[in-house]
Write a structure and sequence with these properties.
Length: 245
Amino acid sequence: MSEALPTLAARIKGARRLTILTGAGVSAASGVPTFRGRDGLWRRYRPEDLATPDAFARDPRLVWEWYAWRRELIATCRPNAAHDVIAAWSRNPGCRVLTQNVDDLHLQAGTYELVRMHGSVWELSCWERCAPGTTPWRDTRVPMTNLPPRCPHCGCIARPAVVWFGEALRAQDVDAAVRATACDVFLTVGTSALVYPAAGLVHDARQQGAFTAEINLEDTPASAAVELALHGSAEQILPAIARLL
Ligand code: BJW
């Protein structure tokens, strides 16, 4: 670790194009539960019961109760030191931030050039895909009453504007993420590197010649593929790197 921090800091300092991919671990210190970690959400709930279009079709109220509960929890959370460092770096030209997180804490921290690959729990869209309702709208009500909420355009059921398993990511987000793999340094932070297409980006970046690094509490499938795998918490390591720049 002692050598690794200055090495990564020097790479970041020398990079014209820096891309950062984040996952739930970046928000863990803010109090947002991860999915697969030690108190992760998938330890208590089955993804197929709650985070698929089939689950929503079967029981929209149940799925909405889960999202309403998560929204209440996230509403009490604030960005942590990891979000703050990433937001500061994002103001440098050539820095792009890709997040799988739906909590919007990167936005709250003031991150520029942010791609929210899996959407946001604070946005809704029309389940029936009526034309105006395919553009997500913001709804930050906490607590949510009268579940499930309705589409303001057609009156049908609304859904969380997040990407569930088996659903395609928005084309513009995939395009932006793929473009961002053409970079000098690709840093993957706080993600289990299990969920595609996000998990494939670090490999694409490396193939194009980027220096790749990972920050995580533990090894992931990406660890063996990156040049530098740093074990530790994002909220400690990122500020430590920022101090070296
Ligand atoms: C810390 C820390 C600290 C803790 N500091 N670290 C290719 C191969 C295999 C499968 C597929 C494939 N392509 C597609 C698939 C299927 C599927 C998939 O990937 N399945 C795998 C699980 C096998 N992918 C999809 O279905 C995607 N869609 C798709 O590809 O569509 C194709 C298509 C095309 C055309 C038509 C139709 C379809 C969609 C994936 C959507 C994922 N959605 C979720 C839910 C979002 C909504 C919600 O939040 O409710 O996104 S699932 C969940 O996982 C959420 C997350 O964004 C995502 C990733 O999780 P993340 O962020 O990595 O969190 P964790 O908990 O897994 O890990 C946390 C990490 O942090 C851990 O490693 C900790 O150690 C670490 N950590 N504290 C640093 N303080």
